Amino acid sequence: MHGIIHLALRKYLQARHGPEGWQRLLEQAGASTSLGYVRVGYYPDEEFIAIVAAASSKTGAAIDAIYEDFGASVAPDLLMLYPRLVNPEWRTLDVLFNTESTIHRVVRARNKGAQPPAINCTRPSPDRVVITYTSPRKLCALARGLVRGVARHYGERVEIFESECMLRGGNACKIAVQVKD
């Protein structure tokens, strides 16, 4: 997983548990506590997953709830990483619909070895997007959180419905997002 995501997770967990709590989570996850994450680095997916599992164990919160909350909190920061790729006229559904063709395309081109999830979107109506998410990481809860964070960034309310999920045996996750008035 890209270093930017690990750095964002550190920021997120330090805000909730403090720097010492972050170190304890790293220890519990079996991750190195002596090396810091760097933006341009790549780190094992298993380490990211283990750190979130450690946070779940510490707080009693469900792992998926942590992924969703983390996604919602990091979305605005991720949008700011590539400001030239996000059309200033776009709103929530536009960003979601164009993520694969703009942001993920550039991430893959600029960062050899980057493996963001594959996202295929359809827009069956002006107020609705259906996302087909596939990734060996199966972090659809993180994807749902990112959707909520993008909506919050634009001051919009959304309803999210996941009709199919890789964690429930599906080939992909189908996430419908509808903007509510």
Key traits:
four-stranded antiparallel sheet, 181 residues, alpha+beta, H-NOX domain, 17% strand
Molecular structure report:
The chain has 181 residues and is α+β, with helices and mostly antiparallel strands. It folds into two domains: 59 residues; 92 residues, H-NOX domain. The chain has six helices and four strands, in the order H-H-H-H-H-E-E-H-E-E. A four-stranded antiparallel beta sheet has the order 1-2-4-3, covered by helices on one side. 29% of the residues are buried.
Short description:
With 181 residues, this protein is α+β, with helices and mostly antiparallel strands.
Shape: globular
Work out the count of structural domains.
2
The biggest sheet, with number of strands, parallel, antiparallel or mixed sense and barrel status, is: 4 strands, antiparallel
> How many DSSP helices?
6
List the helices and strands and how they pair.
Layout: H1 3-29, H2 45-59, H3 63-81, H4 92-98, H5 100-110, E1 118-125, E2 128-134, H6 140-153, E3 157-164, E4 173-180
Helix pairs in contact: 1-2, 3-6, 4-6
